[in-house]
Amino acid sequence: MELENKVPEQLDSIKNDNLKALEKLFPSVIKDGELDIDALKEEIGNFEEVKNERYDFTWAGKQEAKKKAQEDVMARTLKFIEKDSVNPDSTENLYIEGDNLEVLKLLRQNYRGAIKMIYIDPPYNTGNDFVYNDNFKISQKESDKKQGYIDENNQRLQKNSKDSNRFHANWLTMMYPRLKIARDLLSEDGVIFIHIDDNEMENIGKVCNDIFGEENFINIITIKTKIGGVSGSSEGKSLKDVTEFIWAFCKNKNEIFLNPVYNKIRLFERIQDYIDEGKSWKYTSIITKIGDKILLKRDEKNDMNFYGYNILETQSIFSYAKEHKISIEEVYNKFADKIFRTTNAQSSIRQKVIKETKNYKYPIFSCEYIPIKGKNLGQKIEILYKSGSTSEQRNMVMFLSDVVTKENGEYFYLDKITSLWDDIEYNNLTKEGNIEFQNGKKPVKLLQRLINLSTNNNDIVLDFFSGSASTAHAVMQLNAEDGGNRKFIMVQIDEKVKEDTEAYKFLNEINKPTNICEIGKERIRRVGEKIKKEIEEKNKNLKDEEELKKVPDIGFKVFRTADTNINWRKIRDISNSESLPFNEPDRLDFIENYNDKDIVYEVLLRQRDLPLSEKLETLDTIGNRTYLYASSYLICLETDITENLIKELADLNPLPIKFIFRDSAFKSDINLKESTFRYLKTLVEKNSGINKRTYTIEFI
């Protein structure tokens, strides 16, 4: 059997993927699998070497950081920890324990281009932080221990103290490869938020410009933390620091759309604020009568309809209140959907309205269409435009009902957020999530706002410096509030918790190992139970017209980085051998202390675009070691393959799109192996229609 039908030992190579991408753009620049730099220069019009100096952000160790990003992960996998998981058969959430650089590389093949939002809160490099030491070579452990880079428990952490002459370089070298791979995981419309203070504020922006491109910078969000800043020795040397920052970058600025997010303020408080600030409150007119809606033109290409209304009567709020002898407040409360303002803000829709209606004379026009992005994505909406003194003056009508929300009979004005966030409470954070943890917790409200800003209901959120799992908390809470189905992936190294802390005492009390991962997992469990209890209580007390509220996904699968479970070398060695020791197939194929689920997930890590959150089931009717993943991938770990077994697999309905077998299970029956390959491959291709897969049958 040809080797290309083997499950690959190595995950997809970042270098090879980059070469393939270049080859797709410029076929002539890849020669014998290597990049021809001179040919590439010519392809981009550079026919002579540029010798002029140019700007380049660099530091001692940047080349090493680039190499780290491209180094392959060998003989490593993710081990499923079922006992720590919650609802593992149904959940779509993941919690992964391990070095985040290693984890990102392991996830790259499955989640490339799949993550909508990444939030990270990395070490701020204050001089007391620990940064990851990314040297995975066992041979250097002893020297690293002597230098203090690896502790007595072989933790890959090193203190980055300010007296180091590589203080900034160490931190940048740690961050660069992680951000480089994070970019690969982002979807084309994906966004990354990096939470930072002023220690590396400037440098993180430069690194992100390097990786994401200056053109994909979105904003720097400034957060007023409302906590004390510098004191003591810094008095008289600097101002008290009460801010932190979030750098926002995207994968592709042309593809992103930030959802409108608002602060809620009582409507009449907002009106009074405008008056007190000497500003003009614009929502002061009411439509009292509007005529018939007349179709003027249909743009079938863009699925747009343009209308005119033959009558429009308006009145000021104040005269309407006086005429009807009611208060201004009553007018606002009764007619929020008719109170309006106009704006001449430029937009592509407005230009289309001007073009299609300039030959008509109506007091008001409208455009009806289905937005392809934004909060009204996929829903038909109508926007009104009020005529002006000329045929090309069309001012958009904005209704008060679009900028207010009604809660318990009271209107709240929705004030669109800016890049200054000074309304988020930072006090009492240590107990948020019902978990005592003082090391850098972030407010759930802050994270919910970022999630609202950048995701839709079914997107995936990743945090690879997850700490106490505030991001997971925010995802579940937001899903509970708006009925969304967002998924999270949390990644955290099992850093030890200091002994003289409340967190350490807490973990001892609940009989858990004293590391940060246990803090995060326990928080997710407790938040999930709280959400479930609150929804169930609310459902017990529903009024007649209210619908039952659904409990969101409050589970999570736990994985941990570990050594490979598959004996790749022996499998490789026996591929060319005529004498195969089949009497002990498990010892031949797998590493000691393996279990079947670990084998299955290690194989799945080598499949493209296949999330690890799908359902794994055992097909007991066929064999106790035959597994079906995501109803599509059949992994057969049986030690003996027979014609009857193959026929049972072929009768599965629906038929899996890929079958994976053990080489050793065919013993020395090469004919059975080849006939199995041809038979199942033909069946899968016949059933897959136009969505053909390159390899439908693979062997371990």
Automatic annotation (TrEMBL):
Keyword Lyase: no
GO biological process terms held by the UniProt record: methylation
Coiled coil residues, start to end: 521-548
Tagged with keyword Transferase: yes
Any GO MF annotation of the entry: N-methyltransferase activity
Annotated family: Belongs to the N(4)/N(6)-methyltransferase family.
Entry keyword set: Coiled coil, Methyltransferase, S-adenosyl-L-methionine, Transferase
Cited InterPro entries: DNA_methylase_N4/N6, DNA_methylase_N6_adenine_CS, N4/N6-MTase_EcoPI_Mod-like, SAM-dependent_MTases_sf
SUPFAM superfamilies linked: S-adenosyl-L-methionine-dependent methyltransferases (SSF53335)
Start and end residues of each DNA methylase N-4/N-6 domain: 115-500
Protein name: DNA methylase N-4/N-6 domain-containing protein
